[in-house]
Amino acid sequence: MSDSVAQEPDAAATFGGILARPYRPAGFAVFTAVSLSGFEGMAVAAALPEAAADLGSIGLLPWVITSFLLASSITTVISGPFIDGIGVARVFRMAVVVFSLSGTAAAFAPSMTVMIALRVVQGSAGGLLISSGLAAVALIYPQHLVGRGFAAISTVWGVMSVASPALVAVMLTYLGWRWIFLINFPLGLMALAAGWKTLPGPADDSPVTIDAAGAVMVAGMTTALLFAVDAIGLLTVLWLAVAIGLGFLYHRHARSHPNPVVRLEHALTQPYLNLALGSGLMLVGAIAVSAYVPLYVQAGRNGSAAATAWSVLFLSLGWTIGANIGSRLLDRLSESAVCVIGFGFTTPGLIVLAVATGAEADLAVIFALLSVTGFGIGLTTNAGLTLLRAVTESASIGRVGSVYQFARTQGITAGAALGGAVLLLVVERRLGDVEAVRQVLSGESTGAVGREVNEAVQAGFSATAVAGSVASVIGWLLMIRMRRFLAKARSDRRGSGASSRGERDSVL
Fold this sequence. Notes:
This protein folds into two domains: about 10-210 and about 260-505, Growth Hormone, Chain: A (Up-down Bundle); about 210-260. The two termini are about 15 Å apart. The chain is built from 19 helices and no strands. The protein has helices at about 10-15, 25-55, 60-85, 90-105, 110-140, 145-175, 180, 185-195, 210-230, 235-255, 270-290, 295-300, 305-310, 315-330, 335-360, 365-390, 395-430, 435-440, 445-495. By secondary structure, the protein is mostly helical. Helix 15 runs antiparallel to helix 16 and helix 17 (about 395-430) runs antiparallel to helix 19 (about 445-495). Residues about 1-15 and about 500-508 have low confidence and may be disordered.
């Protein structure tokens, strides 16, 4: 592993930071793509209640999110060799085209089933889009600006988080939820135009090989884990067994394959292992809650369309602020320290959120707690990405980044599935039929029946916050262990007198 592989920029580039002329065109392309992905993430979550009321099949509602994330996680993990082999630019172009067209097609979905199918296609492109964007930032900027680059991505995401609810509220009020998907097309054209010729080419001269068998095993393991979380009950054990079995087979496969889709040293060694697992579990906890905030606001608290649209803002806003503050903290603290500190906000935020929702606290309190939760995520994820860049060679950044992003996407996917499963399980046990929620969403149920649905959704949402808190606590412990490993590695290296040029003790 290398501590610092990016070349130092010239004086003008240093003075100008991430907006200096050498970095500006490629940076603009990445940030435009992030705005496309950011709007999709915020808008679809806000539109779910309206779409469910129109299309029906409330039981399939979590799959509008989880199908996208499942496909995204699979393509994320296999994207690394392609990014390193054929370059960020080509992967980026393909991802933007497919993402935009499939998202636009979703506007015309006649049923929940068709919607989910289109979301699978869009998610497949989404995994490539995010992986190529993160790899581009790691390759565009020198090490001392990498944290600022990732913080800028979070800032763009945050700006979209602020703008999206207002736009979504207008669309839901005057145009309908289908128009939310139509905006994919113009944003996609902007991202494609910006990134067509400005992003990096291949960082690895070796030919691209497709580890088809390994990709199938990873996809199967990913799907089995999702079903294990989604099917809470006896089937959970079966699906977990399938996932473990496929993981064992992949381990044997990767040890003998010359170029596996995921190299074991990028997944099972420190600091990669605990960084990925810890970050993933943090996102499991946060997304289990945040993915269903709009449903909680509308079906649990009888919120307006505008309040529902704005409810998706607060976690992302906190995330953006945390990422920017975290990038500044890296000037004084190690990446691993900032990762651990982030959990100190997210985990307590989720615990208090579970109590607050159970007590039917004011929505302002709920939104504030979501902001605190997001703030911790911003600290941890930004520092984690910066740490990866510091310990990874440029020729492997696509592979390493895709594995870490895969873990994050898995966390988001599992969180969305877990949150939906817990919420709907509580609602079904209280009401006997989850379709009763649709009647409240469409305004058909009021009075005592409507209040019963409100209480069931509130109880279900509170239960998701409890489950999310448990996941975040486990992730915190793993991140602390990673930090201890890095501290020991530094101590051992100093004790042996080993040192390398450009070594960065801040990484430890």
